[in-house]
Amino acid sequence: MPEFQGIFAPLTTPFEGDRISSEKFGDNIRKYNATELTGYVILGSSGESVFLTDGESEELVKTAKKTASPDKKLIAGTARESTQLTLEFTNRMAGCGMDAALIRCPSYFKSKMDTQALRAHFLTIADRSEIPVIVYNIPRNTGVTMTVEFLAELAHHENIAGFKDSTGTLSALEELLPALPAGFSYLLGAAGLLFPGIQLGASGGIVTVADIAPEHCVKLYDLIQQEKWSEARRLQLDLIPLNKAVIQTYGVPAAKYALDLLGYYGGPCRLPLLPLDEKGKKEMEGILKELELL
Amino acid sequence: MPEFQGIFAPLTTPFEGDRISSEKFGDNIRKYNATELTGYVILGSSGESVFLTDGESEELVKTAKKTASPDKKLIAGTARESTQLTLEFTNRMAGCGMDAALIRCPSYFKSKMDTQALRAHFLTIADRSEIPVIVYNIPRNTGVTMTVEFLAELAHHENIAGFKDSTGTLSALEELLPALPAGFSYLLGAAGLLFPGIQLGASGGIVTVADIAPEHCVKLYDLIQQEKWSEARRLQLDLIPLNKAVIQTYGVPAAKYALDLLGYYGGPCRLPLLPLDEKGKKEMEGILKELELL
Amino acid sequence: MPEFQGIFAPLTTPFEGDRISSEKFGDNIRKYNATELTGYVILGSSGESVFLTDGESEELVKTAKKTASPDKKLIAGTARESTQLTLEFTNRMAGCGMDAALIRCPSYFKSKMDTQALRAHFLTIADRSEIPVIVYNIPRNTGVTMTVEFLAELAHHENIAGFKDSTGTLSALEELLPALPAGFSYLLGAAGLLFPGIQLGASGGIVTVADIAPEHCVKLYDLIQQEKWSEARRLQLDLIPLNKAVIQTYGVPAAKYALDLLGYYGGPCRLPLLPLDEKGKKEMEGILKELELL
Amino acid sequence: MPEFQGIFAPLTTPFEGDRISSEKFGDNIRKYNATELTGYVILGSSGESVFLTDGESEELVKTAKKTASPDKKLIAGTARESTQLTLEFTNRMAGCGMDAALIRCPSYFKSKMDTQALRAHFLTIADRSEIPVIVYNIPRNTGVTMTVEFLAELAHHENIAGFKDSTGTLSALEELLPALPAGFSYLLGAAGLLFPGIQLGASGGIVTVADIAPEHCVKLYDLIQQEKWSEARRLQLDLIPLNKAVIQTYGVPAAKYALDLLGYYGGPCRLPLLPLDEKGKKEMEGILKELELL
Q: What is the pTM of this model?
């Protein structure tokens, strides 16, 4: 049984003025604790982690550890460009009680990130990380391609517990499924692929949509487990407009606006992310009403 | 009920020396007639249509019309760069008894192919075509993006009967499903998406894999109709290596080599497509054995 | 001394209603005969060659042969997707009196167009073409990369007389210059690189801007030959807005509109290219006034 | 007269074991002080800045300030993903005596980095930075396009002193030249464009090649100022293989290897950049001999 299965919410980071608000972050987590979410990702893209200092990052992670129900799995995004800094930050997060580290490819020197370099990077980290590593495949953002053969190789490292697949397709999953060791976690990063991907064999998902509609996502997961296909299909299609808005069209500002409407604390993003415009706000309200969240 | 549903094989074109062989083409079709394939696509990518003269194209289409069982649907690829030439060739194919025309975007002047230009192109053709049009969305090859909004608009034209979706993702399907008129045909171009895509609501597929493993593809389609999900899932995964080889790794030469091994006539491709090398041949043999076709 | 040096205009194709107008085409050529252009390219992108039948193509080429001053070099675009059809059309153009054939990469099966396939393609054609071949490198349109090593190899084939470089950079030129045989023609496809490129060692250019401002382009070429650098620099910069409009922003419809304003016959493009809108017309008028052409 | 003109070397960062070596860094700078380089860039890509902690970065900058001849201009790379962190780090570098800050686009949320977001980012920083800003345009790495219109707008901000253009083309330069205010610095990031770009009107370059062959680069600059075009042309072409090796083929490890050969301290890169392999070492030696540096 994969250690990481079910639905994970990649938490947003609450800002008040120039500072992060651990209090609001804790409030949000307490609300999420009441859901059936499997766990939380802290310091992911939705958490605007690239805008945070290491100190702010640590504060958030400690708050999560303190506030999250003990049954919730905690995963921290720990990627840095250098192998050494990634490893150090990963073990710092291990020290804060995280259950796993989510690590994407280095991408600054993209043309040099061939399999040999990526192997040196990920194996160095996996060998010395005090917590399991989840390798994050998101070529659209990194501009770096990890081959299926290389991913299969990584999957057999004893300290690599899973993948997060944000390729947007099912190709890697379909090619990798026969090659994965038992108990390996395969988490989808695309909310639109939850139904088909989990049915094919993925173990769950880490999707921003779960920040806003956690119950819908959990129900979708459960319907698939119960083999209620036509209900699952319908629920999957219902989530498409929300997913498109928070990922493709508007991004994190739309997710935070939705949270504000739903009683969580969303608040502003940090610059250079701009606030959601009026058109976006209206569209988000329509989408939430359609889902009967508003 | 969609007019075009089930599995279509995009037929390869038999060459002997410098010429096409209508005889071998007819022989292949007679073999396919014994399968439960819904129909055939003539003059598609797998048919190396871009290497054929108009005269050769017409000869193939006439052979198909003469040889195919009357219950098989016949679709011809008729795209040209100019609107007028596409229309003329489409109606020439209509005159040869084709049931529909499969038409991808013009792509030579890609930076000018905005929605306004594409609208002028497709509406001019759909308005005057004597047979239904199936719009072919393959951005990877054309470099042209058709927006979901524009596709939804096209779907409501009375002479546009369907889409072929070779985006490689499920995004367009998921976004379009709620917007499609009743009876609209949505055909998948990616064999790896047959199971998840048809389950979500697609009406079938046009996949090169069906040239080589028609019975497997038809069985997969039937299993989905019968809601035998776990069998369908297994069969879907079994087809992945074959699909990867004939689409991504080796292309049409690999498909033709497989046909030669299986008693069909595959034969050589036209230059600049090169013959399959020894490594590719060995891999294809292994794949066919794994599928118990050899 | 390179056989093809100086400025070539890639001629537009005059349409009247549904048909090409050889008469207008001849009229335009007679006007260009009065300039110091080195020659003309017929059936290039600016000539909307992808919208023409073989019959129309041949009619245009014969008109050009009949009408062009004997001192003007004539180059025909002859690329097709198949090696054989390219060769046949090339030799048909040779039979019409063309001095060279301009041939870009096949691109439909782009992922299969590796150096081995391109070598088979270009060598087959160069070996048997009755006229010299100019290899056209335009990766932006074809999606196919020709390596510098492969281009250097082609340059040493006795029947490959030159390159047209539409990469938009000077990298290939700078890398290739030391490797080119004496007398090899290196023609730039980017009007913005005429000054720096010819100064570095290119032999000339094939640029749409030369259709509209032939005297400016010829003067720029002459100023470089005369080493009048600061005048050349100024003239080069003056041509940038015209080039941007006819290549990047508006394309062939803008070039044809400019021709109409200047006493040539521009006329409409074929669909799916749309007519220039009012904003574009106004911008073109401003650009032509700035160049004192209007 | 532009404040930043001539040739700048983007310094590499010396590592010994796990740590940076300020001593070796100072030694290198003392060697460079003997050249006619205009100045140095610290914390650029060649300096592996993405692998450094803020503390290491500050140590390097302070060493540079202490060691560089007073006539050398000092520019620090200060980009971060967030506007606020970029501003804070920029002013920290100002406090260390830097003459300017070189700042590229944020790129993590690339699809959201439209002109409006980039405007908010750069204007916030330029308004409050204590030193002039040089805006760094490198779309190949960032995946973010800055339009010519937006760059022209930025050029008129009183605290934006220049651009570094690493687009690899001359298009932006040619389009922007007429729109730039007097005294604006336009620095090329592509060593292959020094000759044509400076001749067209650029004020100089920041090129890794200048780390290895500073005298060649300075001489090239001087030849252009003296209008010795054919010598400049030859020198430009001579530098192409070195540039290709240290930028495209092998990257920073090749630059560092060359430094080691030439009496500077190059040393290892940090992981995930791998050491130069034997083939690369041999090629670098050949290139340096060809340039009579070895």
A: 0.97
